[in-house]
Amino acid sequence: MSFDFDLIVIGAGPGGYVAAIRASQLGLKTAVIEKDSPGGVCLNIGCIPSKALIHQAENYHAIKELEEIGVKADTSGLNYKAVFDKSRAVVSQMTKGVSGLFKKNKVEYIKGTAKVTGENNIDVDGKAYSAKFILLATGSSPRQIPGFEFDEEVVLSSTGILMLEKLPSSLVILGSGAIGMEFAYVMNAFGVDVTVIEMLPNILPVEDRDTAKVVEKAFKNRGVKFLTGTTAKSLKKTKSSVTVTVEKDGKEDTIKADKILVAVGRVPNTANLGLEELGIRIERGFVKVGDYYQTGVPSIYAIGDIVPSPLLAHVASKEGEIAVEHMAGVGHEKKLDPQLIPGATYCEPQIASFGYNEARAKEAGIAYEKALFPFVAIGKAVAIGQQDGLVKILFDPKTKEILGCHVVGPQATELIHELLLAKKAELLPEDIATLVHAHPTLSEGVMEAARAAEGWAIHI
Questions:
Q1: What is this structure's pTM?
Q2: Is the separation of the CB atoms in 321 and 19 below 8 Å?
């Protein structure tokens, strides 16, 4: 049977575009369908522009350090529109880069809205295409909750707050996950009065409590207010403000602000794709997939935010690689091990982690011991004035197998990978503890935490 392509990918986000390029490298004639811009949410209205804002927030916050050594700085001329423009310039550069990669790798780019009409068939705005394989990589959208629907004027999604060209004087953030905390950091650094509402007892609820406490203390010292164990009951809004009614321990109160950011998770983009008509199983919006991300229809695969796995760009990219390598008959890797997926939150201090934290280990009935090493005992951290943080390793008491690792502090999102590689390679804390680390570096904290697991940390 003749097809227009060997593979058609629906969605050009970090899952889709990486999969398409890898497929072309493996000799598959490949096309990508995207209704918006290359790069998807991550590149256009997610990971990349938010990190550009965070970088500028760090630069602005660092002015206080310069003042401590006598440098006079006038911050009254802050032009947030210029900060916004810088973030969009980064996006423009990166989208052009993805387009260039498509051309370099002979991937055909088709702009439009796709619907799957058969096991090998796709309709794009009325035009039919066929492929031996179809890969669904349609990503996710910000979750809306009743009574707090986005208008992107005063009730913002993560997209809306990224597109602000003028700072509000005050902001309420609903949700203290990675998105909420990153924007809490950015807005606070630029002088916005920030209040974070979290329904659960602790902020950053998916992270280890010890690391989350470090971030909470740092944020509170900068003036960020947290309302934990608190439910947002209702919202009243005008054209220029919001009033949120909250409840804690049976008592109600109100909070007024210029705007509210609703950051309570994301939902998979699986509606209107035609999947149910083909018999593809969907549960709570997520596509059920097998070991190589194939659906119940052998020619159709699904990856990224629409399958039951962490909604992270790097997860989508790796899943895409696994899927297309299986299509090409060269794949040996199966579905990602959730214990080997790093999570990262890019506020300051940063948090990064993988594997079990203490709460999840206890819930699972897994025996563990822990070793911690504080950044205040790392010479490099003290020298650069960023000593709030720690490295924490959970390990099996008998075998010393690494069960989970958690880092909070400067460059935590970079430091986590030495520990992750050790876990994947089935190394033990001893192997890290005896590895010579350059001095002075932040990574010495990783070494010292491993030594603490072995009972012989030097600097505490």
A1: 0.95
A2: yes
